[in-house]
Protein backbone atom coordinates (compact mmCIF):
# COMPACT_ATOMS: atom_id res chain seq x y z
CA UNK A 1 0.00 0.00 0.00
CA UNK A 2 1.32 3.39 -0.93
CA UNK A 3 2.45 5.49 1.99
CA UNK A 4 1.95 9.27 1.79
CA UNK A 5 3.56 11.67 4.20
CA UNK A 6 1.21 14.52 5.09
CA UNK A 7 3.04 17.85 5.15
CA UNK A 8 2.06 21.44 5.78
CA UNK A 9 3.39 24.02 3.34
CA UNK A 10 4.02 27.30 5.14
CA UNK A 11 5.21 30.39 3.28
CA UNK A 12 4.73 34.11 3.57
CA UNK A 13 3.93 36.36 0.60
CA UNK A 14 2.09 39.64 0.18
CA UNK A 15 -0.25 38.05 -2.35
CA UNK A 16 -0.85 34.89 -0.31
CA UNK A 17 -4.43 34.55 0.91
CA UNK A 18 -5.26 32.87 4.24
CA UNK A 19 -7.39 29.83 3.53
CA UNK A 20 -9.52 28.12 6.15
CA UNK A 21 -12.04 25.32 6.04
CA UNK A 22 -13.78 23.05 3.62
CA UNK A 23 -15.57 23.46 0.36
CA UNK A 24 -19.32 23.36 0.49
CA UNK A 25 -20.70 19.82 0.74
CA UNK A 26 -18.14 17.04 1.25
CA UNK A 27 -15.05 18.47 2.96
CA UNK A 28 -12.28 18.73 0.38
CA UNK A 29 -8.78 20.15 0.28
CA UNK A 30 -7.64 21.11 -3.26
CA UNK A 31 -4.06 20.96 -4.47
CA UNK A 32 -2.83 21.23 -8.04
CA UNK A 33 0.01 18.68 -8.51
CA UNK A 34 1.18 20.33 -11.73
CA UNK A 35 1.92 23.60 -9.98
CA UNK A 36 5.67 24.36 -10.01
CA UNK A 37 5.29 25.96 -6.59
CA UNK A 38 3.94 22.81 -4.97
CA UNK A 39 6.47 20.56 -6.64
CA UNK A 40 9.35 22.84 -5.73
CA UNK A 41 8.71 22.91 -1.99
CA UNK A 42 8.08 19.83 0.17
CA UNK A 43 8.17 20.28 3.91
CA UNK A 44 8.99 17.50 6.39
CA UNK A 45 6.98 19.08 9.19
CA UNK A 46 3.93 16.93 9.83
CA UNK A 47 0.72 18.67 10.89
CA UNK A 48 -0.72 16.37 13.50
CA UNK A 49 -4.40 17.26 13.17
CA UNK A 50 -4.96 17.10 9.45
CA UNK A 51 -6.39 13.77 8.39
CA UNK A 52 -6.73 12.92 4.72
CA UNK A 53 -9.01 10.17 3.45
CA UNK A 54 -8.11 7.23 1.24
CA UNK A 55 -4.39 7.48 1.93
CA UNK A 56 -2.15 5.78 4.45
CA UNK A 57 -0.19 8.27 6.54
CA UNK A 58 3.26 7.14 7.63
CA UNK A 59 4.48 9.22 10.55
CA UNK A 60 7.46 7.04 11.42
CA UNK A 61 10.00 8.96 9.39
CA UNK A 62 8.55 12.43 9.14
CA UNK A 63 10.51 14.04 11.94
CA UNK A 64 13.85 14.87 10.41
CA UNK A 65 16.54 17.31 11.37
CA UNK A 66 15.63 20.89 10.63
CA UNK A 67 18.68 21.15 8.45
CA UNK A 68 17.03 18.81 5.95
CA UNK A 69 14.67 21.66 5.05
CA UNK A 70 17.59 23.55 3.57
CA UNK A 71 18.04 20.86 0.93
CA UNK A 72 14.81 21.73 -0.84
CA UNK A 73 15.09 23.74 -4.04
CA UNK A 74 14.21 27.40 -3.91
CA UNK A 75 10.91 28.62 -5.25
CA UNK A 76 10.73 29.82 -8.84
CA UNK A 77 10.54 33.63 -9.21
CA UNK A 78 7.11 35.16 -8.87
CA UNK A 79 5.56 32.01 -7.38
CA UNK A 80 3.02 32.36 -4.58
CA UNK A 81 1.91 29.55 -2.26
CA UNK A 82 -1.52 29.53 -0.60
CA UNK A 83 -1.20 29.01 3.17
CA UNK A 84 -3.51 26.55 4.90
CA UNK A 85 -4.14 27.44 8.53
CA UNK A 86 -5.32 24.37 10.44
CA UNK A 87 -7.09 24.92 13.75
CA UNK A 88 -8.78 22.45 16.07
CA UNK A 89 -8.96 18.71 15.66
CA UNK A 90 -10.31 19.04 12.14
CA UNK A 91 -10.62 21.84 9.64
CA UNK A 92 -13.39 24.35 10.03
CA UNK A 93 -16.43 23.41 7.99
CA UNK A 94 -17.17 26.91 6.76
CA UNK A 95 -16.99 27.31 2.95
CA UNK A 96 -14.50 29.46 1.06
CA UNK A 97 -15.52 33.09 0.52
CA UNK A 98 -17.23 33.51 -2.86
CA UNK A 99 -14.57 35.84 -4.24
CA UNK A 100 -11.80 33.30 -3.40
CA UNK A 101 -13.52 30.14 -4.63
CA UNK A 102 -12.55 30.56 -8.27
CA UNK A 103 -8.89 30.99 -7.44
CA UNK A 104 -8.86 27.97 -5.13
CA UNK A 105 -10.74 25.81 -7.61
CA UNK A 106 -8.07 26.64 -10.15
CA UNK A 107 -5.11 25.99 -7.85
CA UNK A 108 -6.28 22.87 -6.03
CA UNK A 109 -7.12 19.25 -6.77
CA UNK A 110 -9.64 17.50 -4.51
CA UNK A 111 -8.59 15.46 -1.47
CA UNK A 112 -11.31 14.58 1.10
CA UNK A 113 -10.65 15.42 4.76
CA UNK A 114 -12.07 13.10 7.42
CA UNK A 115 -14.33 14.16 10.24
CA UNK A 116 -13.50 13.15 13.80
CA UNK A 117 -15.94 10.25 13.72
CA UNK A 118 -14.48 8.99 10.45
CA UNK A 119 -11.01 9.21 11.95
CA UNK A 120 -12.06 6.95 14.82
CA UNK A 121 -13.62 4.49 12.40
CA UNK A 122 -10.44 4.44 10.33
CA UNK A 123 -8.31 3.85 13.44
CA UNK A 124 -10.38 0.73 14.20
CA UNK A 125 -10.34 -0.60 10.63
CA UNK A 126 -7.42 -2.90 9.69
CA UNK A 127 -5.48 -2.03 6.57
CA UNK A 128 -5.75 -5.64 5.33
CA UNK A 129 -8.61 -7.43 7.16
CA UNK A 130 -8.47 -10.53 4.94
CA UNK A 131 -4.74 -10.82 5.56
CA UNK A 132 -5.32 -10.59 9.32
CA UNK A 133 -7.86 -13.44 9.23
CA UNK A 134 -5.37 -15.59 7.31
CA UNK A 135 -2.70 -14.64 9.87
CA UNK A 136 -4.98 -15.75 12.71
CA UNK A 137 -5.50 -19.12 11.01
CA UNK A 138 -1.77 -19.63 10.52
CA UNK A 139 -0.99 -18.54 14.08
CA UNK A 140 -3.67 -20.82 15.51
CA UNK A 141 -2.62 -23.93 13.61
CA UNK A 142 1.13 -23.46 14.06
CA UNK A 143 0.82 -22.57 17.74
CA UNK A 144 -1.47 -25.52 18.41
CA UNK A 145 1.07 -27.99 17.01
CA UNK A 146 3.87 -26.29 18.96
CA UNK A 147 1.95 -26.35 22.26
CA UNK A 148 1.05 -30.00 21.70
CA UNK A 149 4.73 -30.84 21.36
CA UNK A 150 5.66 -28.64 24.35
CA UNK A 151 3.41 -30.85 26.48
CA UNK A 152 4.41 -34.13 24.82
CA UNK A 153 8.17 -34.19 25.29
CA UNK A 154 8.24 -33.42 29.06
CA UNK A 155 5.54 -36.06 29.63
CA UNK A 156 7.57 -38.62 27.66
CA UNK A 157 10.78 -37.83 29.56
CA UNK A 158 8.91 -38.05 32.87
CA UNK A 159 7.73 -41.54 31.94
CA UNK A 160 11.22 -42.48 30.78
CA UNK A 161 13.00 -41.31 33.94
CA UNK A 162 11.60 -40.39 37.38
CA UNK A 163 14.03 -37.50 37.93
CA UNK A 164 13.17 -33.93 36.89
CA UNK A 165 16.77 -33.29 35.86
CA UNK A 166 16.45 -34.41 32.18
CA UNK A 167 13.47 -32.10 31.65
CA UNK A 168 15.29 -29.26 33.42
CA UNK A 169 18.40 -29.70 31.25
CA UNK A 170 16.44 -29.68 27.98
CA UNK A 171 14.54 -26.59 29.14
CA UNK A 172 17.72 -24.84 30.30
CA UNK A 173 19.52 -25.27 26.99
CA UNK A 174 16.36 -24.17 25.18
CA UNK A 175 16.38 -20.87 27.07
CA UNK A 176 20.13 -20.57 26.60
CA UNK A 177 19.77 -20.96 22.84
CA UNK A 178 17.17 -18.19 22.85
CA UNK A 179 19.46 -15.91 24.84
CA UNK A 180 22.43 -16.49 22.53
CA UNK A 181 20.71 -17.01 19.19
CA UNK A 182 17.79 -14.58 19.20
CA UNK A 183 19.86 -11.48 18.24
CA UNK A 184 21.51 -13.11 15.21
CA UNK A 185 18.23 -14.69 14.05
CA UNK A 186 16.45 -11.36 14.48
CA UNK A 187 19.09 -9.57 12.44
CA UNK A 188 18.86 -12.24 9.74
CA UNK A 189 15.06 -11.90 9.57
CA UNK A 190 15.35 -8.12 9.13
CA UNK A 191 17.55 -8.64 6.05
CA UNK A 192 15.73 -11.56 4.46
CA UNK A 193 12.40 -11.66 2.56
CA UNK A 194 9.53 -12.45 4.91
CA UNK A 195 7.83 -15.33 3.10
CA UNK A 196 11.00 -17.37 2.34
CA UNK A 197 12.16 -16.81 5.93
CA UNK A 198 8.77 -17.93 7.24
CA UNK A 199 8.91 -21.10 5.13
CA UNK A 200 12.47 -21.86 6.21
CA UNK A 201 11.77 -21.39 9.92
CA UNK A 202 8.72 -23.65 9.71
CA UNK A 203 10.82 -26.30 7.98
CA UNK A 204 13.51 -26.09 10.68
CA UNK A 205 10.97 -26.25 13.50
CA UNK A 206 9.10 -29.25 12.08
CA UNK A 207 12.35 -31.08 11.29
CA UNK A 208 13.74 -30.61 14.81
CA UNK A 209 10.43 -31.67 16.36
CA UNK A 210 10.50 -34.87 14.31
CA UNK A 211 14.13 -35.54 15.30
CA UNK A 212 13.27 -34.99 18.97
CA UNK A 213 10.24 -37.29 18.72
CA UNK A 214 12.35 -39.98 17.05
CA UNK A 215 14.96 -39.81 19.82
CA UNK A 216 12.35 -40.10 22.57
CA UNK A 217 10.59 -43.00 20.80
CA UNK A 218 13.95 -44.75 20.40
CA UNK A 219 14.71 -44.30 24.09
CA UNK A 220 11.30 -45.58 25.16
CA UNK A 221 11.72 -48.72 23.05
CA UNK A 222 15.38 -49.49 23.68
CA UNK A 223 16.65 -47.73 26.80
CA UNK A 224 16.00 -49.40 30.10
CA UNK A 225 16.12 -47.91 33.56
CA UNK A 226 19.46 -46.16 34.01
CA UNK A 227 20.97 -43.72 36.46
CA UNK A 228 20.62 -40.02 35.85
CA UNK A 229 24.32 -39.55 35.02
CA UNK A 230 24.22 -42.38 32.48
CA UNK A 231 21.07 -40.99 30.87
CA UNK A 232 22.58 -37.55 30.36
CA UNK A 233 25.54 -39.01 28.45
CA UNK A 234 23.50 -41.14 26.06
CA UNK A 235 23.85 -40.07 22.39
CA UNK A 236 20.07 -39.91 21.91
CA UNK A 237 19.74 -37.50 24.84
CA UNK A 238 22.51 -35.24 23.50
CA UNK A 239 20.74 -35.13 20.12
CA UNK A 240 17.46 -34.38 21.92
CA UNK A 241 19.03 -31.44 23.76
CA UNK A 242 20.49 -29.97 20.55
CA UNK A 243 17.28 -30.49 18.55
CA UNK A 244 15.21 -29.04 21.36
CA UNK A 245 17.39 -25.91 21.52
CA UNK A 246 17.14 -25.34 17.76
CA UNK A 247 13.37 -25.98 17.80
CA UNK A 248 12.89 -23.47 20.61
CA UNK A 249 14.88 -20.82 18.73
CA UNK A 250 12.97 -21.40 15.47
CA UNK A 251 9.63 -21.21 17.29
CA UNK A 252 10.64 -17.98 18.97
CA UNK A 253 11.72 -16.46 15.65
CA UNK A 254 8.36 -17.34 14.09
CA UNK A 255 6.54 -15.78 17.03
CA UNK A 256 8.57 -12.57 16.88
CA UNK A 257 8.07 -12.19 13.12
CA UNK A 258 4.29 -12.62 13.33
CA UNK A 259 3.72 -10.68 16.57
CA UNK A 260 6.12 -7.78 15.98
CA UNK A 261 6.27 -7.45 12.20
CA UNK A 262 3.49 -9.11 10.20
CA UNK A 263 0.59 -8.03 12.38
CA UNK A 264 1.77 -4.39 12.24
CA UNK A 265 1.83 -4.40 8.44
CA UNK A 266 -1.57 -6.07 8.16
CA UNK A 267 -3.37 -4.01 10.84
CA UNK A 268 -1.77 -0.70 9.90
CA UNK A 269 0.94 1.24 11.69
CA UNK A 270 -1.25 4.33 12.13
CA UNK A 271 -4.42 2.47 13.16
CA UNK A 272 -3.95 2.00 16.94
CA UNK A 273 -7.34 0.49 17.75
CA UNK A 274 -7.13 -2.07 14.93
CA UNK A 275 -3.59 -2.98 16.02
CA UNK A 276 -4.69 -3.35 19.65
CA UNK A 277 -7.53 -5.65 18.61
CA UNK A 278 -5.17 -7.74 16.47
CA UNK A 279 -2.67 -8.08 19.33
CA UNK A 280 -5.47 -9.08 21.69
CA UNK A 281 -6.67 -11.73 19.24
CA UNK A 282 -3.18 -13.24 18.97
CA UNK A 283 -2.98 -13.44 22.77
CA UNK A 284 -6.38 -15.15 22.92
CA UNK A 285 -5.28 -17.70 20.35
CA UNK A 286 -2.08 -18.30 22.32
CA UNK A 287 -4.00 -18.95 25.54
CA UNK A 288 -6.43 -21.19 23.68
CA UNK A 289 -3.61 -23.23 22.16
CA UNK A 290 -1.94 -23.70 25.55
CA UNK A 291 -5.14 -25.15 26.98
CA UNK A 292 -6.19 -27.22 23.98
CA UNK A 293 -2.71 -28.59 23.28
CA UNK A 294 -2.29 -29.98 26.79
CA UNK A 295 -5.86 -31.29 26.84
CA UNK A 296 -5.54 -33.09 23.51
CA UNK A 297 -2.32 -34.85 24.44
CA UNK A 298 -3.70 -35.73 27.88
CA UNK A 299 -6.77 -37.23 26.21
CA UNK A 300 -4.55 -39.28 23.90
CA UNK A 301 -2.57 -40.57 26.88
CA UNK A 302 -5.72 -41.86 28.54
CA UNK A 303 -6.50 -44.06 25.52
CA UNK A 304 -3.11 -44.97 24.03
CA UNK A 305 0.46 -45.62 25.18
CA UNK A 306 3.07 -42.87 25.06
CA UNK A 307 4.78 -44.21 21.91
CA UNK A 308 1.51 -44.16 19.96
CA UNK A 309 0.81 -40.63 21.17
CA UNK A 310 4.23 -39.48 19.99
CA UNK A 311 3.65 -41.08 16.58
CA UNK A 312 0.32 -39.27 16.27
CA UNK A 313 2.04 -36.00 17.21
CA UNK A 314 4.74 -36.66 14.60
CA UNK A 315 2.13 -37.27 11.90
CA UNK A 316 0.44 -34.00 12.83
CA UNK A 317 3.79 -32.18 12.56
CA UNK A 318 4.39 -33.58 9.07
CA UNK A 319 0.93 -32.52 7.92
CA UNK A 320 1.32 -29.07 9.44
CA UNK A 321 4.25 -27.98 7.28
CA UNK A 322 2.52 -27.77 3.86
CA UNK A 323 -0.55 -26.23 5.49
CA UNK A 324 1.51 -23.51 7.18
CA UNK A 325 3.40 -22.77 3.96
CA UNK A 326 0.11 -22.46 2.08
CA UNK A 327 -1.31 -20.14 4.75
CA UNK A 328 1.79 -17.96 4.55
CA UNK A 329 1.32 -17.55 0.81
CA UNK A 330 -2.38 -16.85 1.37
CA UNK A 331 -1.62 -14.10 3.89
CA UNK A 332 0.59 -12.35 1.37
CA UNK A 333 -1.77 -12.74 -1.60
CA UNK A 334 -4.95 -11.49 0.12
CA UNK A 335 -3.10 -8.49 1.59
CA UNK A 336 -1.98 -7.20 -1.82
CA UNK A 337 1.53 -8.58 -1.23
CA UNK A 338 2.10 -6.32 1.75
CA UNK A 339 4.73 -8.76 3.05
CA UNK A 340 6.88 -8.38 -0.07
CA UNK A 341 8.98 -5.63 1.43
CA UNK A 342 11.79 -4.12 -0.59
CA UNK A 343 15.35 -5.00 0.34
CA UNK A 344 18.48 -2.97 -0.19
CA UNK A 345 21.21 -4.34 -2.48
CA UNK A 346 23.46 -5.02 0.51
CA UNK A 347 20.96 -7.38 2.16
CA UNK A 348 22.00 -10.42 0.12
CA UNK A 349 25.63 -10.06 1.15
CA UNK A 350 24.59 -9.54 4.76
CA UNK A 351 22.50 -12.73 4.73
CA UNK A 352 25.34 -14.71 3.15
CA UNK A 353 27.75 -13.43 5.78
CA UNK A 354 25.41 -14.24 8.66
CA UNK A 355 24.86 -17.79 7.35
CA UNK A 356 28.60 -18.49 7.03
CA UNK A 357 29.22 -21.34 9.50
CA UNK A 358 32.93 -20.48 9.64
CA UNK A 359 32.07 -17.17 11.29
CA UNK A 360 29.27 -18.40 13.55
CA UNK A 361 30.95 -17.33 16.80
CA UNK A 362 32.10 -14.00 15.38
CA UNK A 363 28.70 -13.32 13.85
CA UNK A 364 26.95 -14.31 17.06
CA UNK A 365 28.99 -11.95 19.23
CA UNK A 366 28.72 -9.19 16.64
CA UNK A 367 24.93 -9.61 16.42
CA UNK A 368 24.55 -9.52 20.20
CA UNK A 369 26.63 -6.33 20.38
CA UNK A 370 24.78 -4.75 17.46
CA UNK A 371 21.40 -5.83 18.84
CA UNK A 372 22.18 -4.41 22.27
CA UNK A 373 23.32 -1.08 20.81
CA UNK A 374 20.13 -0.81 18.74
CA UNK A 375 17.97 -1.98 21.63
CA UNK A 376 19.19 0.59 24.16
CA UNK A 377 18.79 3.47 21.69
CA UNK A 378 15.07 2.93 21.14
CA UNK A 379 12.67 5.66 22.21
CA UNK A 380 10.39 3.03 23.78
CA UNK A 381 13.20 1.39 25.78
CA UNK A 382 11.47 1.84 29.20
CA UNK A 383 8.37 0.03 27.91
CA UNK A 384 10.52 -2.87 26.70
CA UNK A 385 12.54 -3.02 29.93
CA UNK A 386 9.28 -3.11 31.88
CA UNK A 387 8.33 -6.21 29.89
CA UNK A 388 11.67 -7.78 30.81
CA UNK A 389 11.14 -6.94 34.49
CA UNK A 390 7.84 -8.80 34.48
CA UNK A 391 9.73 -11.99 33.61
CA UNK A 392 11.38 -11.87 37.05
CA UNK A 393 8.01 -12.68 38.59
CA UNK A 394 8.24 -16.46 38.83
CA UNK A 395 6.88 -16.89 42.36
CA UNK A 396 3.59 -14.97 42.45
CA UNK A 397 2.34 -16.37 39.16
CA UNK A 398 0.80 -19.66 38.03
CA UNK A 399 3.63 -22.09 37.42
CA UNK A 400 5.80 -24.81 38.88
CA UNK A 401 6.96 -22.83 41.95
CA UNK A 402 3.44 -21.78 42.95
CA UNK A 403 2.15 -25.32 42.42
CA UNK A 404 4.96 -26.73 44.58
CA UNK A 405 4.16 -24.23 47.36
CA UNK A 406 0.46 -25.09 47.41
CA UNK A 407 1.05 -28.84 47.34
CA UNK A 408 3.63 -28.55 50.11
CA UNK A 409 1.11 -26.76 52.33
CA UNK A 410 -1.42 -29.52 51.76
CA UNK A 411 -3.81 -27.52 49.63
CA UNK A 412 -6.46 -29.61 47.90
CA UNK A 413 -5.63 -30.45 44.25
CA UNK A 414 -9.08 -29.19 43.30
CA UNK A 415 -8.20 -25.73 44.67
CA UNK A 416 -4.86 -25.81 42.85
CA UNK A 417 -6.62 -26.72 39.61
CA UNK A 418 -9.28 -24.05 40.12
CA UNK A 419 -6.52 -21.47 40.74
CA UNK A 420 -4.77 -22.35 37.47
CA UNK A 421 -8.05 -22.26 35.58
CA UNK A 422 -8.97 -18.88 37.07
CA UNK A 423 -5.59 -17.44 36.03
CA UNK A 424 -6.21 -18.60 32.46
CA UNK A 425 -9.68 -17.05 32.46
CA UNK A 426 -8.29 -13.75 33.77
CA UNK A 427 -5.68 -13.75 31.02
CA UNK A 428 -8.39 -14.28 28.42
CA UNK A 429 -10.56 -11.51 29.88
CA UNK A 430 -7.57 -9.16 29.84
CA UNK A 431 -7.27 -9.49 26.07
CA UNK A 432 -10.78 -8.05 25.73
CA UNK A 433 -10.19 -5.31 28.30
CA UNK A 434 -6.92 -4.14 26.79
CA UNK A 435 -8.28 -3.21 23.35
CA UNK A 436 -11.20 -1.35 24.95
CA UNK A 437 -8.79 0.44 27.29
CA UNK A 438 -6.61 1.54 24.39
CA UNK A 439 -9.65 2.94 22.62
CA UNK A 440 -10.71 4.94 25.69
CA UNK A 441 -7.46 6.30 27.14
CA UNK A 442 -4.74 5.49 24.57
CA UNK A 443 -1.96 2.91 24.67
CA UNK A 444 0.31 4.81 27.07
CA UNK A 445 -2.17 5.24 29.91
CA UNK A 446 -3.48 1.72 29.28
CA UNK A 447 0.03 0.35 29.82
CA UNK A 448 0.46 2.30 33.06
CA UNK A 449 -2.93 1.10 34.34
CA UNK A 450 -2.04 -2.56 33.70
CA UNK A 451 1.30 -2.35 35.53
CA UNK A 452 -0.08 -0.44 38.52
CA UNK A 453 -3.01 -2.85 38.84
CA UNK A 454 -0.70 -5.87 38.81
CA UNK A 455 1.76 -4.38 41.30
CA UNK A 456 -1.05 -3.42 43.71
CA UNK A 457 -2.65 -6.86 43.77
CA UNK A 458 0.67 -8.68 44.12
CA UNK A 459 1.49 -6.42 47.06
CA UNK A 460 -1.76 -7.55 48.70
CA UNK A 461 -0.83 -11.19 48.07
CA UNK A 462 2.64 -10.67 49.58
CA UNK A 463 1.16 -8.99 52.65
CA UNK A 464 -1.24 -11.89 53.21
CA UNK A 465 1.60 -14.39 52.84
CA UNK A 466 3.85 -12.63 55.33
CA UNK A 467 0.96 -12.34 57.77
CA UNK A 468 1.49 -16.07 58.31
CA UNK A 469 -2.16 -17.07 58.15
CA UNK A 470 -2.02 -19.17 54.98
CA UNK A 471 -3.28 -22.20 56.87
CA UNK A 472 -6.70 -20.55 57.22
CA UNK A 473 -9.16 -20.76 54.38
CA UNK A 474 -10.08 -17.07 54.02
CA UNK A 475 -6.50 -15.69 53.88
CA UNK A 476 -5.57 -18.48 51.46
CA UNK A 477 -8.42 -17.58 49.11
CA UNK A 478 -7.48 -13.87 49.31
CA UNK A 479 -3.88 -14.80 48.48
CA UNK A 480 -4.86 -16.89 45.46
CA UNK A 481 -7.54 -14.46 44.28
CA UNK A 482 -5.08 -11.54 44.39
CA UNK A 483 -2.60 -13.43 42.22
CA UNK A 484 -5.31 -14.55 39.80
CA UNK A 485 -6.72 -11.01 39.46
CA UNK A 486 -3.21 -9.63 38.95
CA UNK A 487 -3.15 -11.58 35.67
CA UNK A 488 -5.61 -8.99 34.35
CA UNK A 489 -2.93 -6.33 34.67
CA UNK A 490 -0.16 -8.65 33.48
CA UNK A 491 -1.88 -9.74 30.28
CA UNK A 492 -3.23 -6.23 29.62
CA UNK A 493 0.27 -4.85 29.67
CA UNK A 494 1.48 -7.78 27.61
CA UNK A 495 -0.91 -6.72 24.85
CA UNK A 496 -0.44 -2.96 25.27
CA UNK A 497 3.32 -3.11 25.80
CA UNK A 498 3.67 -5.10 22.60
CA UNK A 499 1.77 -2.38 20.72
CA UNK A 500 3.91 0.38 22.23
CA UNK A 501 7.05 -1.37 21.03
CA UNK A 502 5.45 -2.05 17.64
CA UNK A 503 4.71 1.67 17.32
CA UNK A 504 8.15 2.82 18.42
CA UNK A 505 10.40 0.37 16.59
CA UNK A 506 10.99 0.92 12.85
CA UNK A 507 9.83 -1.90 10.61
CA UNK A 508 13.39 -2.44 9.38
CA UNK A 509 14.50 -3.33 12.93
CA UNK A 510 11.36 -5.02 14.27
CA UNK A 511 12.80 -8.55 14.33
CA UNK A 512 16.21 -7.47 15.67
CA UNK A 513 14.71 -5.48 18.56
CA UNK A 514 12.07 -8.14 19.24
CA UNK A 515 14.67 -10.89 19.28
CA UNK A 516 16.91 -8.88 21.58
CA UNK A 517 14.05 -8.24 24.00
CA UNK A 518 13.17 -11.94 24.15
CA UNK A 519 16.85 -12.75 24.60
CA UNK A 520 17.11 -10.45 27.63
CA UNK A 521 13.81 -11.82 28.98
CA UNK A 522 15.24 -15.34 28.72
CA UNK A 523 18.26 -14.18 30.68
CA UNK A 524 15.93 -12.84 33.38
CA UNK A 525 14.18 -16.21 33.57
CA UNK A 526 17.55 -17.98 33.83
CA UNK A 527 18.57 -15.70 36.70
CA UNK A 528 15.35 -16.38 38.59
CA UNK A 529 15.71 -20.10 37.86
CA UNK A 530 19.19 -20.02 39.39
CA UNK A 531 17.85 -18.22 42.47
CA UNK A 532 15.08 -20.80 42.79
CA UNK A 533 17.70 -23.55 42.68
CA UNK A 534 19.71 -21.86 45.43
CA UNK A 535 16.62 -21.13 47.55
CA UNK A 536 15.11 -24.54 46.86
CA UNK A 537 13.44 -24.95 50.24
CA UNK A 538 9.76 -24.02 50.39
CA UNK A 539 10.48 -21.92 53.48
CA UNK A 540 12.43 -19.54 51.22
CA UNK A 541 9.36 -18.80 49.10
CA UNK A 542 8.93 -15.43 50.84
CA UNK A 543 12.30 -14.30 49.50
CA UNK A 544 11.29 -15.20 45.94
CA UNK A 545 7.93 -13.48 46.45
CA UNK A 546 9.66 -10.23 47.52
CA UNK A 547 11.82 -10.34 44.39
CA UNK A 548 8.73 -10.91 42.26
CA UNK A 549 6.78 -7.99 43.72
CA UNK A 550 9.84 -5.74 43.54
CA UNK A 551 10.33 -6.50 39.85
CA UNK A 552 6.70 -5.71 38.99
CA UNK A 553 6.72 -2.55 41.11
CA UNK A 554 9.97 -1.49 39.44
CA UNK A 555 8.42 -2.03 36.02
CA UNK A 556 5.41 0.13 36.98
CA UNK A 557 7.63 2.89 38.41
CA UNK A 558 9.87 2.94 35.34
CA UNK A 559 6.97 3.09 32.89
CA UNK A 560 5.10 5.81 34.81
CA UNK A 561 8.26 7.89 35.11
CA UNK A 562 8.78 7.59 31.36
CA UNK A 563 5.16 8.57 30.77
CA UNK A 564 5.33 11.52 33.16
CA UNK A 565 8.54 12.95 31.71
CA UNK A 566 8.15 12.58 27.96
CA UNK A 567 10.87 13.57 25.54
CA UNK A 568 10.28 15.36 22.26
CA UNK A 569 10.87 12.07 20.44
CA UNK A 570 8.20 10.40 22.56
CA UNK A 571 5.69 13.17 21.85
CA UNK A 572 6.34 12.95 18.13
CA UNK A 573 6.18 9.15 18.12
CA UNK A 574 2.81 9.01 19.92
CA UNK A 575 1.47 12.19 18.37
CA UNK A 576 -2.06 10.76 18.10
CA UNK A 577 -2.22 9.42 21.67
CA UNK A 578 -4.92 11.15 23.78
CA UNK A 579 -2.41 11.69 26.58
CA UNK A 580 -0.35 14.13 24.50
CA UNK A 581 -3.33 15.59 22.66
CA UNK A 582 -4.82 16.65 26.01
CA UNK A 583 -1.51 18.18 27.07
CA UNK A 584 -1.35 20.10 23.78
CA UNK A 585 -4.78 21.63 24.36
UniProtKB/TrEMBL annotation:
CDD domains xrefs: MFS_SLC40A1_like
Residue intervals passing through the bilayer: 164-185, 197-220, 232-250, 379-405, 411-434, 446-468, 474-491, 512-535, 541-564
Span of the signal peptide: none
Main location, first listed in the record: membrane
Family: Belongs to the ferroportin (FP) (TC 2.A.100) family. SLC40A subfamily.
Function comment: May be involved in iron transport and iron homeostasis.
PANTHER family the record matches: SOLUTE CARRIER FAMILY 40 MEMBER, SOLUTE CARRIER FAMILY 40 MEMBER 3, CHLOROPLASTIC
Protein name: Solute carrier family 40 member
Biological source species: Hordeum vulgare subsp. vulgare (Domesticated barley)
Amino acid sequence: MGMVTAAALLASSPQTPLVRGYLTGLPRLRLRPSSPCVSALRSNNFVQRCYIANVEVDVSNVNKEESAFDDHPSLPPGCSIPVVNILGDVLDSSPFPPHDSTQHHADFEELPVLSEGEQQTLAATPAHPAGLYALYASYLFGNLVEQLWNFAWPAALAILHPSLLPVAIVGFFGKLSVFLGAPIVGKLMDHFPRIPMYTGLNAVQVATQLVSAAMVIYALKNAGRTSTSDLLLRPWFIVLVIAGAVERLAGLALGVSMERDWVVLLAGTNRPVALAQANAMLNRLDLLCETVGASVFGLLLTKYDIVTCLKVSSALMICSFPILVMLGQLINSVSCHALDSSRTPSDESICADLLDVRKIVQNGLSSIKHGWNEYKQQTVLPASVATVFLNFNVALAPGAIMTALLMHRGISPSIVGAFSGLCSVMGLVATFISSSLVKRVGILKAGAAGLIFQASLLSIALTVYWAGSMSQRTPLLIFLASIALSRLGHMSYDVVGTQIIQTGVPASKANLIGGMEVSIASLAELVMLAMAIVANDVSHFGFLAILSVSSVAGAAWMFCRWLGNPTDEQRELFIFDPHFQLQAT
